[in-house]
Amino acid sequence: MTVKERYARIIEWFSETMPEPRTELHYDSPFGLLVAVILSAQCTDKRVNMITPPLMEAFPTPELLALASAEEVFGYIKSVSYPNNKTRSLIGMAKMLVDEFNSEVPSDIDSLLRLPGVGRKTANVILSVVFNRAAMAVDTHVFRVSERIGLTTHSKNPLETERALVKYIPEELIPRAHHWLILHGRYVCKARKPECLDCGIRPYCRYWSSNLKKSETKS
Which of 29, 45, 73, 207 matches a 20 to 30 Å C-alpha distance to 82? Predict the structure, then answer.
C-alpha cells in the first residue's frame, strides 16, 4: 500500500465513523480555550476540565486575569502539572492580550506564538478549533499514532510530523484530522497496549501489517 492510499483509506474511515470530532477540553470562549490548552500541557483533559470552571468564574476575562496575583491563580491550578510555570504563563498571556491585542485572542500563528505559554501545538489548536484554520496541532498522541499507523516515517519531531500530515490531508479536513488522531490515540491506539483487534483502521495500519507478518513468519 502506498502512502497516498493509506492516507485515503484512513481519512475515509474517520470521515464515516467520526464526522464531527470535538476537543474534549471544556470552554465557552476563545480566551477560555486558550487558558485550557495552556493548562493541558503534560496534563490530562479530565484534570483541566475540573480546574477551569472555578478559574474562569474568578477570572472570566483577560483584564481580570491580568490583574490577578500569582498566589490567587496558583490556588486554582495547583493540581495541574508545573503549576508555577503555568501560573506565570497565564498571567503573562492575559497581560499581553490586554496590552497588545485589545483583549482578543489573535487569529494568526505569529501573534499567538508571542503569548507566554503558547508553543506551536497550542497555537495550532487555537487556529483550528476557534478559527477553523488548516492548522495541524501535533501532541504526543498525534506524533505517536501518525508514526505507528504509517502516516509518517521516522519523524524526528512534531514539526516534521505536522509537515507530513498537512502534505497529504486535504486542507478542509485538517481541523478534524487533528481530533481524529488525538482521540484514536487516547482510546484505541494507546501508547503501551494498542487495541488493534478493536481498531477500524487495522486493514490500513502499518503497525498491524508488520506484526501480522511477524506472526505468520513464526508460525
Answer: 29
